[in-house]
Amino acid sequence: MKRFLSALAVTIFLGSGAVLFAADTVIRNAHVLTMLDGPEYRQFDVVVRNGQFVSDLPSAGATVIDAAGKYVIPGLTEMHAHVPFIRFDQNAARYRDDVLFLWVANGVTLARGMMGHPSHLELREALEANEALGPRLIISGPSFSGRDRNEAEAAGRVREQKAAGYDLLKIHPGLAPAVFHAVASTANEEGIEFSGHVTGAIGLIASLEAGQRTIDHLDGFIETLVDPARLSNRRPGWFGADLVYDVEETRIEAMVAALVEASAAVVPTETLLENVAGSLEELEARDEYAYLPPNLRNQYANSVRGSSNAFTPSSAKTFLDLRKRLIGMAFRAGVPILLGSDSPQIFNVPGFSIHRELEAMVAAGLTPFDAIATGTIAPAEFYGQDELWGSIAPGRSADFVVLTEDPLVNIANSRAIDAVMVRGRYLPREELDAGLEDIRRRYQ
């Protein structure tokens, strides 16, 4: 399947693969959730020209799409994504294209790559220029981890990644304190974000004080809520799962206050933890299982089997309930919650998992509108790009999802996708289905 071509003749292609928009596209009669008017739908013609929303009347020859009875929301974000990278063979390139398509087919129009590779720099530009089909990318460089043992070399890597054009630095666990602080101080000097995991030897509060911008997976949260003496001689579980019965409730308020003070955001990836603490039989029975390549099916199954010893039914429930309570408390305190599921990762199939993450946010106490905001206007505001994307308004990138059911009534209706537009490229249901069927067939 040629993933450059839309079933609607709204674009023409140059020899270079770049896209020119031949005519306006108009979405008419839909209920539009702009994300700028609160949880209220508006009815107006959504006019798209050259990949942007515009306020003026459509041009002659515009493609008009009647969306009567349907719902339009801004495109969603995946704020903790693992963008595949091409190694040496054509299969790797095809898998990368499949992942990009799965995100878009599920309404994800922007992804923050948290496992960086030099090839992502070129891919980011190709996507921005509509030379490839996929979400817009915010990308980290190759991660900083326990492999970084020299302070000067780590600081040099920060400068190299800044100069190369990466958007942020990815922090993995295992950094020695001196190396972490070399990375953090150099990042602050260079003006580049560092985000991701919490280094165990540093801890959540010190990471925030050093300037870490996002805390992903709620890493370090539970460790912050227990007596520090409990952190020695332990066998660490998934993000503090081994400490869940030692949490001191009186510590929660100070932890949330530290997040607020630091102006840091949280990317929960709650579905990842639901998966590792879940039932392998149920995970393999999901409809989206068909969109996992066979090698990842085996890898993910082994990961869930390996984590089974870390949880009992009671401890799994206690762990997940606590995490959702902390997400809700942080949100109500004003901490930006950014939608991210960690895909592709353990049974988190790209695109499909973002809808499960939306449901997890509602389970954490957010309203459906608030949950949608975590994947639209909230990340745009966090990155200071809310004039560019994240809402439906003139001048913003034309990224939206057309739904057949109301997501404010039931957040599960975010799955009822009739069409997706990504940077002005309209993909109707039949085109999405054709792409999905192609992937299913090859992954059998």
Concise overview:
The chain contains 15 helices and 18 strands. It has 444 residues and is an alpha/beta fold.
Describe the structure.
With 444 residues, this protein is of the alpha/beta class. It has helices at residues 90-105, 119-128, 151-164, 177-190, 204-210, 221-224, 252-262, 270-276, 280-284, 294-307, 313-333, 352-363, 368-374, 377-382, 429-443; strands at 11-13, 19-21, 25-28, 31-32, 46-49, 52-54, 63-66, 71-74, 76-81, 108-113, 136-139, 168-171, 193-196, 214-216, 265-267, 400-403, 417-422, 425-428. The strands form six sheets. It has a five-stranded mixed beta sheet with strand order 4-8-16-17-18. α1 (90-105) crosses α15 (429-443), α3 (151-164) packs parallel to α4 and α12 crosses α13. The radius of gyration is 22 Å and the shape is globular.
Search tags:
15 helices; 444 residues; 16% strand; alpha/beta; five-stranded mixed β-sheet; four-stranded mixed β-sheet
C-alpha Rg (nearest Å):
22 Å
* End-to-end gap: 17 Å
- Residues in helices, as a percent range: 25-40%
Major sheet size, sense and barrel closure: 5 strands, mixed
Tell me what portion of residues adopts beta-strand conformation. Answer: 15-25%
General form: globular
Q: What's the count of strands?
A: 18
What's the pLDDT, averaged over the residues? 93
Number of helices: 15
**Poorly predicted spans:** 1-18
- Which structural category fits the helices and strands? alpha/beta
Strand order of the biggest β-sheet: 4-8-16-17-18
